[in-house]
Structure formats: C-alpha cells, structure tokens
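Intended use. Records like the one below are meant for learning the mapping from a protein sequence to its folded structure. Do not use them to infer anything beyond what is encoded.
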Amino acid sequence: MPTITPFLWYDDQAEPAARHYTSLFGDSRVDSVARMPDGSALVVEFTLLGQPYRAMNGGPGHPHTDAVSFQVDVDTQDELDRVWDALLADGGEPVACGWLRDRWGLSWQVTPSMMGELMTGSGDPEANARVFAAMQQMVKLDIPALRAAAAGH
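Structure written out for the chain above:
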C-alpha cells in the first residue's frame, strides 16, 4: 500500500529541527539518522504525533515557504501557548491569525481544535463573521476571545 511522508529540506539543520519538533509532542521521536562520512546528518527520519516525516540536509537554495505549513490543533489555551512559544523559541517569527515561522523558516498554524466549530458550527452567519473578524485581529490565537466573539460578547 502506498504511503505519503512529508519530506523537509534544510540547509544543514535537519537533525536539530527534528529533535526540537519531537520534544514538543507526545508520540514523537527521532527514528533514525543517516550520516555522511564526516558524521554530519544527511537524512533524519522522525515521527510527530504518530505521523512519519523525513528531513534532509540538502544545502542552500531551497528555503521553506508559506505555501506548505503544518497545522497543530490544540484543546486548551495553555497547550496553544506552550506549542506557540516553543515553535517561536530561538528566532521564530509570529505572523498572523495563528501562523508563525519557526527558526528554520518552516510555517506552522497553531489553532484551537474547536476552530472549525467556532467558524462554521453555529450555523449563525453573524457569529461566524464575528469569530473571523476577531481572528483577523490576532497574531497568536486567543481561545476565550474567540469563544466570546462567537457568543456575541
């Protein structure tokens, strides 16, 4: 059966990136590191939340872009804050509406798991519009403020 594995290209930081990402989530680990003759990492296989990934030190010329990002759904504001802060650590950059770029330039969306419900689940177009408007004013998402917007407060 075919499988699809996200494959990430780094200049020379695949192993530190994989180790950082796997430190953030349960059911995550570095599975293997294929090394060059000089001992540096070439390909790193790792698992995030049960999903396999590969990363390669391929050299410069292929930077990450916002065209591909990873979305992390969280249940609580504390979890959102923890993941957000960890992904921004040591040089990441907040963007807007729950998006950020980590120190390696990889784009992430850190979102409440109930975001779909807040945006469309009520069936009330005005509530949906309020949630969307509130989200557009945020950089890091604020779950209580999004819920308040949905409720009309």
